[in-house]
Amino acid sequence: MPKEHALDFERLCREHSLAATHQRRIIFHAVTASPGHYSPEQIYATVRAQIPSISLATVYKNLKTFIEAGILREVSPHHGTLRVDPNLEPHHHLVCRICKSITDIGAKFLDPVRVRRAPPGFNIEQFSVDILGVCSKCARKH
């Protein structure tokens, strides 16, 4: 991990009262090293190259810890498997209904989305729009 990323990770951990362990550093780097919305299984495959003894359960546990701390976001939990998103800026997603790929789309591509009100007793913390369709790769195949 480049030194500046390691320092950013250390700072994030301090700000969120998390221990900056070696395993967490490697897992976080696997999520943030390249753009995407990865499943725990994909992250596990990447991390295992550096920590062969790590378990999938450990990867899941640390991803959940990062999500609960606000360092990562959970994406589209209603589309099947857990996916994580390192992009904490407000944005929405394009979701391919065939391959399940998820792509960020900025709010500027949508007309303003407004929630008028929530049902009584429901506190809205954030919202995102999932636009379902077929990605260009899948469209070429069909």
Number of strands: 5
Helix run count = 5
How many angstroms does the end-to-end distance come to?
39 Å
Helical content stands at 25-40%
Count of domain modules: 2
Poorly predicted sequence stretches spanning 5 or more consecutive residues: none
Structural class: alpha+beta
Report mean pLDDT, rounded to a whole number: 86
- What composes the largest sheet? 3 strands, mixed
Cα-atom radius of gyration: 17 Å
Q: Provide the spatial order of strands within the biggest beta sheet.
A: 4-3-5
The CATH class designation of the largest domain is: Mainly Alpha
**In CATH terms, what is the architecture of the largest domain?**
Orthogonal Bundle
- Beta-strand percentage range: 5-15%
Shape: globular
Q: Could you spell the SSE succession in H and E letters?
A: HHHHEEEEEH
CATH fourth-tier homologous superfamily of the largest domain: Winged helix-like DNA-binding domain superfamily/Winged helix DNA-binding domain
The fold-level CATH name of the largest domain is Arc Repressor Mutant, subunit A
Walkthrough of the structure:
The protein has five helices and five strands; from the N terminus they run ααααβββββα. A hairpin with a 7-residue loop joins strand 1 and strand 2. A three-stranded mixed beta sheet has the order 4-3-5, with no helix packed on it. It has a two-stranded antiparallel sheet with strand order 1-2. It has 142 residues and is of the alpha+beta class. The chain has two domains: 3-83, Arc Repressor Mutant, subunit A (Orthogonal Bundle), CATH 1.10.10; 89-141, Dna Ligase, domain 1. The longest helix has 14 residues, at 56-69.
